[in-house]
Amino acid sequence: MIIMNSLEYIKEDIQNIAEAILSVLNIDVTIVDENLIRIAGTGRYLRKIGERLDGYSAFKKSLEEQISIIIDDPHASNICKECDHKTYCKEHAEVCCPITLDGYSYGVIGLIAFTESQKEIIRENRDGLLNFLGKMADLISNKLKAQINTEELELEKKKLETLIDSMDRAIVSVETNGKIDKYNSKFKEIFNLNDSEVEGKSVVKVLSFINEPLNKDFKRYKSGMFFYRKDGYEIKGIYNINKISVKDKLKGYVIDFIDKREAIKNYNRINKDYKIVLDNIIGESNIIKAIKNESYIASKSSSTVLITGESGTGKELFARAIHNHSDRADNPFIAVNCAAIPDNLLESELFGYEEGAFTGAKKGGKLGKFELAHKGTIFLDEIGDMSLHLQAKLLRVLQERELDKIGGKSNISIDVRIISATNKDLEDMVSKGIFREDLYYRLNVIPIHLPSLKERREDIPLLIDYTIKEYSNKLGKNVDHVDKDVLKVMMDYRWPGNIRELQNIIEYSINMSSSSVITLDSIPQKIKSTNINELIDDNREIRTLEDLEKQEIIRALNKFKNFKKDKELVAKALGISRATLYRKLEKYNIVSK
Ligand SMILES: Nc1ncnc2c1ncn2[C@@H]1O[C@H](COP(=O)(O)OP(=O)(O)OP(=O)(O)O)[C@@H](O)[C@H]1O
User: Fold this and answer.
1) Among 79, 299, 304, 372, who pairs with 325 as Cys (CB 3.0-4.6 Å)?
2) Topology of the domain comprising 168-260
3) Mind listing the pLDDT tens digit for each residue in 530-546?
4) 551 alpha carbon to ligand 1 midpoint, in Å?
């Protein structure tokens, strides 16, 4: 919208003013705009509205020099002598005055005498008329100012409305008595309301959960969780109430609301540009290529995926890429680290609870990660750390596709794809009875095993290159490669922490580098002497040989348990005879089928 700051836009008012002046003074009036185009006029000037005053004239001088001019004797006037219209001018006298606003000329208003008697009026009232015309010019410029202000306000209002309407937050402003004043479209949308249910209504009638914070305990509840129900429609989210004060006087409130599920969806949408896809995962080794291929196939299915691999091998990265290639990509990807949350909290984190489920339960209850991941993917990282109690609950969710919330009266059906990951040997845990076998099979429909970095050394140069770029950028340095000695050391190193460790080492080295190349001087000491470090780095408890032997036998038995000639295969795999195998089973008290 362009602000209409020209007399053209108030010409009707100006014409009324011209006619009013004529009726009082009985002298013709004409008004031109900043381009000397006549926009109002009386008498013979009425027909000339819209015409332009060409050439030099008193009006032009008045406009350009912002001065009032009075001509009561055209023959003696210097202005008239120079005027381009002098040969056919029928004017006997004139008074004109510039219309200015904020130092800018918007036009000129003039009184014109076409008869001797009109000329006499001008002559006799020179000062009075000049003063009067000045007042009329002010009247017009004030009118123009009011018009500009109104349009500016209108423009600001439109901008604000558009801004507020395009927000992904619902917003409502209320007066001090709680009456709804303004709201945006998102507000109606998330609460499933139409204008007639909102306009002028009391906010606590529309949203009962606002009653307490607004009327009882503002300090305590100025933000909180809400649960809203209307005709079978339900949403949960978070509200914030802000006071609006003018000169320390409370004038009302602005309340904003976030629909939790939508916020997560939007988060995912916003991050779409940075969404990891399989092509962005660095690695050209055959093994990684094969895994990318398996992952792509897995992304097109809704079966569970179990990603195994040492810490830092990219399990979460692959899980995200699988989600992003799937038809769930527009819905949430929710990652939960089962090892990082204490067991009693993990249950409510995963499954949520209803309001009043237990002492200390939050008002409005809590949405569980499974609910948040509805129609998307949940990534259960470190699944091997989940307690048996929660394993049983998870199994139920997998089997029934329903959630049984703590304190919930009814079950909630969910549509979530499960990808889990672990760096533990789940099969071993199953054999020891610390991971449920039935759950293991449910989770492991599509197994993906990520190799450690040392198993795909050919990818190390690529990863170094990529990571240098990433961290050089982040740290504002211009390091761009490693020299050949560093490359050799890095190719030989054992990388127990895999890619995460490689990132850590590159970040350190970039910090230590003073040129564009990373040399042996800038890399950490620990990776320079691989062999010694292998010994130092491996902090695992030393196990007895008997213990190791027992574990390997159990592993082999598990591996071949579904084969007919399992004992023969086990013995062969262990490099011992069947008789020795039986002896050892007895020795270690291992019961097998
Ligand atoms: N192939 C890869 N290309 C680029 N970066 C990678 C690659 N694989 C992993 N990374 C990066 O390495 C880091 C560790 O990856 P991620 O967290 O996926 O590993 P993880 O196996 O899930 O680790 P943990 O078991 O410790 O949770 C992340 O910063 C990730 O972006």
Assistant:
1) 299
2) Beta-Lactamase (3.30.450)
3) 544 444 445 556 778 88
4) 29
